Amino acid sequence: MRQYFGRKLLIYGLTFFMAVTINWMIPRFMPGDPVAGMLARARVTQPEAVEAMRAYYTNLFGFDLPIWKQYLNFWAALLHGDFGISVWVFPTPVSTVILGAVPYTLALMIPAVLLSWVVGNRLGAYAARRKLLDNSVLPIGYVLTAMPYMWLAVILAWGLGVVAGIFPVAGGYSFAMRPNWSWEFLGDLALHWTLPFASLFLVALGGWAIGMRNMIIYELESDYSNYLAALGAPQRLIRRYAFRNAVLPQITGLALQLGVLVAGALVTEIVFSYPGLGSLILKAIQNQDLFLLQGTFLFIVLGVLIANFIIDVVYVVVDPRTRAGMAGAAA
Amino acid sequence: MTTIDTALPQTPTAVRREALYFALRNGKLLVGLGVILILLGTAVIGPVLLGRAANDYVGLPMQSPSSEYWFGTNTFGQDIFVQFVYGLRTTFEVGALGGGIAAVIGMAVGFIAGYRGGMVDEVLNMLTNIILVIPTLAVLLIINAYLGIRSVGVQALFIGLTSWPWAARAIRAQTFSLRTRDFVDLARLSGMPSRKIILREIAPNMSSYLFMTFILLFGGSILIASSLDFIGLGPTEGVSLGLMLQNAHQWSALHLGLWWWFIPPGAGITAVVGALYVANVGLDEVFNPKLRET
Prior knowledge:
The complex is a heterodimer of chains A (331) and B (294). With 331 residues, chain A is mainly α. Chain A is built from 13 helices and no strands. Chain A folds into 2 domains: 2-79, no CATH class; 102-330, MetI-like fold (Orthogonal Bundle), CATH 1.10.3720.10. Chain A is globular. Chain A starts with a helix and ends with a helix. Chain B has a domain at 97-294: MetI-like (MetI-like fold, Orthogonal Bundle). Helix content of chain B is 74%, strand content 0%. The radius of gyration of chain B is 23 Å and the shape is globular. Chain B has 14 helices and no strands. The chains are: A mainly alpha (331), B mainly alpha (294). The interface between A and B is large, with 60 and 50 residues.
């Protein structure tokens, strides 16, 4: 057990190390001079002002220090929780800006990911080897997983928001309201949450349903299923065993899909101007706020690593064989 | 002599003929391939026939679809059908280039790790796992944000460089199961160099699998590229389906009711990627007798 988690944690640690290193390297080793770029975008004409700004930015990145020292300083600042100052909402620290957006992204992603996984698995399991259901679930599933996340979001916003007028199409809550804990505000929050949630949920659903359907067909052809059928076990029992076996690869699949799901959540937020990390990234890009962008990147990597670790733990809890194997290896 | 002839059905031509037999009778493969070929044809020939640049201002703004402008015009008076055709071309380019680069890296890493084993495998496997965990889009966001001028080629290159890990993992597992087979041992005994064994003995035995991996990487690249375009980090020149969606969203096509601006690009991406996936399932059934429906 300890060896298994030790190995996993080593990989996650190395991943984080690499992510930070990439984050540090890109501004320094990409073609072009980021300081010159920022100065050009600021469109300042007075030479003195340009010089002052150049000195400021060079100092901010620490470009005047030797490379290894820049790298160590970068880590030191990071471990103090210092991601720099946002240019877009100057002079708020990047970490504050990000922490304000994270709850929205989590409130959108966690229910959408978990529900689409559960419902998709059920749907796929029911559809497998049932001609009528399979013929409808499979094509719909393929269309849904092939859809770009933002396209379904745009269509839902247009159909249910603009044309039908049922749901609001922008923002996390009405502009007329201030965040508070009244029922009215919470209801408004839920109304704004519905469409982004629905589009994330639907696109993810297709992939899970198809994956589960294929796994169930594979399991129903295996020896233990045939043996159970030969013993005269009812179909429902056989299917339940098949489901329990087929769910395991789907858990691994969830870990593999996390990156895609995060990407989907980001673009969905942009469509609905939902005030999470996705909209933050858009603002950062539009305002050339590269510190904010880099800080968001590290937050996303950190979130994905934590989620991966949780999935690892769940896998060990769900699959007794991993525990038995680990105990055997330890003994 | 005739008995021997019938007893040898596994010659390469026979295998190929068998695959072709099932391919021509597989509905999924034919439909998927048909859609892809139609769209690819449009993308290749379309721009030549249209004789216009993608972003020309051709007529009145905000025209709904008509016989002159098949998909209408946007708020700037650009012909959306022309943009769609050029965008389709970009989509195929990104898919082929990004998917191709990812497939090459994935195969190289997978084959070497799976065939060599031991320390080489440990290191490559570790690298694969690390890149597998990092969310691809987040890395691409930073890289593209710092690249001032962006082109389709560079975008595809970076997509290819970041999306290979799952392919490498799958190919490594397949190679692992093949490398202890008798024919590989025989090749090794006969003194064949490792590179040749991988290319001549191992790769051909999983060629269908490799091709399907490429198809999935192709579709994946298209989806990643469209997300990047939509966030505003697409190619700075030219047009792509993702850029069209971004423009439509940015210039509030939603609120103006210009549905012909945002429906076609998304439908184009969905059609290409969906057709690829369906064709992939069809191919799987052709190559894997267990999956064939009789």
